[in-house]
Structures are given as C-alpha cells and as structure tokens.
Design a protein that fits this description.
Layout (H helix, E strand, L loop, with lengths): L17 H11 L5 H28 L3 H12 L5 E2 L1 H8 L3 H13 L3 E6 L2 E9 L1 H21 L5 H21 L12
Antiparallel strand pairs: 1-3, 2-3
Helix pairs in contact: 1-2, 2-6, 3-6, 4-5
Length: 188
C-alpha cells in the first residue's frame, strides 16, 4: 500500500516536492549534484511563486505586469519621470512597435502622457502622470508588505548573507550569458 494520498480525477496533479524532483533527476542523470539542484530548483520555484503573487497584486490595482515595467522604468529614470519611447523600448528590451502599443494603452488609462518635446518637435516624450505614480507607489507598498512577510523568518544578518549570495549568483549568470551586457552596474 502506498503512503501517497490518492487523487481524484478532478484534482490537479501536484508539483513534486523538491526532494522528489531531485530523486527523479538523479535516477535519470547520475552525475547530478543534489545540493546544486536543490538551490537552483528552489530559486526557480520561488521566482515563479513570487511572480504569481506580484501579478495578483498588480491585477488588484488594475495594471498589468507590462504596464508596471513601464511605470518602474519611468520612476527609475528620476524626476520628472520622462523618457522618449525609444529609450523606454531599449531599457525594456522591446521593439519600437511593441512600445508604441504599450504607451498608447497606458496613455488611454491615464498612467502616462505622450507629448512632443517643446525643444525638438520631432521628439516624443513619455511622462508619468500623477495617476501612474500613485499606481506605482501602491504596487510598491503591496510588494513591500509581501516581501517583509516572505523574509520574516530570517534574522537581519541572514538576510544580508542571502542577499550577498544571490547577488554573486546573479553576477555569475550575467558574466557568462551573452545577452547580459550592462547589467552589473545596477548591483554596485
């Protein structure tokens, strides 16, 4: 008799535990380092679950993840929170057409404005509106609450050690991946 609970036909199949996943991987690939796999698999699952949580928060605010990325990019540009569409597209890794579509939608929702640059009438400027900044601030409040709860079981020094270790891992990935140009400066 199995100690695994039976699932009814209507229940969704459950993701295996990390230990079950690692055991299955080791069965199929004997050279697997279980410690490495545990770290990498836990990070992957944590990232997916955090993205779901953030997505729900943004949906509660009536904005999409794509819109959040634009709001965040404008805020990171500093006051007065203005960038050209080309610069926004470059920073977000989007095509100009995709950026134009996103800006159109966000302007229609009152999150950004799009106006001609008064000093160069050919140039367009996208600017964060008060409504867009309010949405960004509320998303940040919600994310901060979630993140504090996420890390509540870690002592301050553990948070520091974990943060440093994750940055080292991030740097390793960015150094070894050909599409990671220019990303190290935001970690210093």
């Amino acid at each position: 008799m199995s100690d695994t609970p039976e699932r009814s036909a209507s229940q969704e199949p459950q993701e295996p535990t990390l230990d079950e996943q690692i055991a299955a991987y080791q069965r199929e690939y004997r050279d697997l380092d279980p410690q490495v796999e545990k770290v990498v698999s836990a990070l992957g699952r944590l990232n997916r679950r955090m993205n779901v949580a953030y997505g729900r928060q943004l949906a509660d605010l009536g904005i999409s993840n794509a819109e959040w990325e634009v709001l965040k990019t404008l805020v990171l540009s500093g006051a007065p929170y203005r960038l050209g569409p080309g610069e926004l597209a470059k920073r977000l890794g989007l095509t100009p057409a995709a950026m134009t579509h996103r800006i159109d939608r966000m302007a229609g929702e009152g999150l950004v404005t799009r106006d001609r640059d008064e000093n160069n009438r050919v140039r367009v400027i996208v600017e964060l509106t008060d409504e867009g900044r309010t949405k960004w601030l509320e998303a940040m409040r919600m994310a901060t609450d979630f993140e504090e709860k996420l890390l509540q079981d870690l002592e301050p020094e553990e948070r520091g050690v974990l943060g440093d270790a994750l940055i080292r891992l991030l740097r390793r990935v960015e150094l070894t991946q050909p599409d990671a140009d220019g990303r190290l400066s935001d970690l210093d």
